[in-house]
Automatic annotation (TrEMBL):
It comes from Devosia geojensis. This is Molybdenum cofactor biosysynthesis protein. Gene3D superfamilies: PK beta-barrel domain-like. It comes from the Bacteria. Residues 20-169 form the MOSC domain. Pfam families: MOSC (PF03473).
């Protein structure tokens, strides 16, 4: 059994689709990734700011599992660290199966609370034609499966770098499934 760990970390000071890989990132309590355009206590995603800039920022940190990139590579989609806009690329964590409120201890100090799923958008298709179809699937029962990672808020700050372990603490039951945020 592979232990859960950080595969890579990325950030971008501008609102670009992709983020640049880094040697380490600093998670700041209540704000997100230091130096990243999406850091802040209130929402930073441009379409959400336009609707209500006072909303709490439930999207301070974006996490994607490396296994997703491997599965879509078999379908011809090559995606590298940071290219889908994630701050933290994980390995050995089934992020999409976590319940809302799960806490991830990352490295020595940082703690991120999972708030929900990233809602895949048209930018994914613009980045790589055909990729959006791999990130969203309509199930037979009419529900939508979103695969583009999870979002979270920083409960406790700290430095995060590739190779750092990830420990998972599930919330009290009953568990609530992740929904888009």
């Amino acid at each position: 059994m592979m232990s859960a760990r950080v595969e890579s970390v990325s950030l971008s000071p501008s609102h670009a689709f992709s983020k640049a890989p880094a040697e380490a990132i600093e998670l700041v309590e209540g704000l997100g990734v230091a130096g990243d355009a999406h850091a802040g206590a209130t929402v930073k995603h441009r379409s959400r700011v336009a609707k209500d800039p006072t909303q709490p920022n439930l999207r301070q940190v974006h996490l994607i599992h490396a296994e997703l990139f491997e599965s879509i590579a078999r379908l011809g989609h090559r995606v590298g660290p940071g290219q889908m806009g994630e701050n933290i690329l994980t390995r050995g964590v089934d992020l999409l199966a976590l319940p809302t409120g799960t806490e991830l201890r990352i490295g020595r100090e940082a703690v991120v609370r999972v708030t929900g799923l990233r809602n895949p958008c048209a930018q994914i298709e613009a980045f790589q034609p055909g990729l959006l179809a791999q990130m969203v699937e309509k199930r037979a029962d009419g529900t939508i499966e979103r695969r583009a990672g999870v979002m979270g808020i920083v409960l406790k700050g700290g430095m995060v770098q590739p190779g750092d372990p990830i420990t998972i603490a599930l919330p009290q039951e009953p568990h609530r499934p992740l929904g888009p945020v």
